[in-house]
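# step 3/5: fold
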Amino acid sequence: MKLFLALFGLLAVGGIGYLMVNRNAPPQLPYAEVKVETLVDTLATNGKVEPFEWVSVRAERPGKLLRLFVERGKIVQAGATVATQDSAETQGAISTAYARLKQAQAEREALDVNGRPAELAQIDAAVRKANLDLENARKELSSLQRLEAQNAIPRYEVAKAAEAVAGIETEISSLRARRRSFGSLPADKKAADSRIAEARSIIEQARQKAGQGVLIAPISGTVYQVDPKPGAYLNPGDLVANIGRLDKLRVSVYVDEPELGRVAKGMPVTLTWDAIPGKEWKGTVDRLPQQIVPLQSRQVGEVLVVVDNPDGDLVPGSNINAFIRSRVAENALTVPKECIRKEGDVSGVYVFEGDKLKWHPVKLGVSNITRAQVLDGVKAKDRVANAVDKPLKDGMSAVAIAPTN
């Protein structure tokens, strides 16, 4: 029992001594070396693809879509037929206009031959008949007036007969006026020529309207959108297809308002699309935003980027990932961002100098997600204390632990 108590006492004294020694030992701190490297400040965001140049092919008149000659992804040349619409109504208008033209031309030919003798004969016959009718009507009126004087008939019968006489007299005056108008053959020919010109104009308008039923491609490019199907009824302005140049694209890249200061015209941009993993498209910033707009919960500026698309596999409407290479520092001294500390308003790092820590205020430059450029305050291969929970002080003792990776 005495031996056990003696051994227990020795162990207790040793443990207390070990704790006292280690409590006073300097802390062990991980470090990172200052590197010399090219540091790229990349702004990651998202955007939407649009064609560089595009046009919409739309219906120009109402009618059923008879046939589509294109499909999505098809390459077409300017002037190629995209679709046709039903033109039965327009063909009917053309036929009617041709009938009017034929009639006007026949009238003109009759004037050239004999100046309308048939029509003159018809008018003269009508005048003769009207004169006979007038003579009989006047006799009837005279007879009725005598009977009225004897109170043999009511007054309204006399008034009715008088109206009949006046009507015949008006008809004779109209026929004679029409007969006199035929005395000017040049004027008749001019009027006939006007009717011929009017008929031809109606035919041309009908033909143009029929041509509106044939929808053509205004530019050469790739069909990237087709809306209707054959048989659908189209109203004027309805979209049939969108055609665009897809070898070069415009991309609206959405940059959050606080980050817009990092973007300038001409900066290189890399795009990726989740639909084609592993592929990248290269472009440049072409235009900065003119205003800030809401985008869901964000306030963004739409930065316009021009991107080469030589294979045509990035299509309009795609939602892409964009990486703007905003700033580049060559041969930069860099440290992990977690090594940078704040002492009041001053940024700095703790550098291992032997077994002591030395506070070095630093001036910072370009940074990315993980590393920051140090313009002044450190040199290459300096060992900088990494982030730890315990407070550090200038001049304190510490043991540098090499990074694990």
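# step 4/5: annotate
The chain has a mean pLDDT of 83.
# step 5/5: archive (pending)
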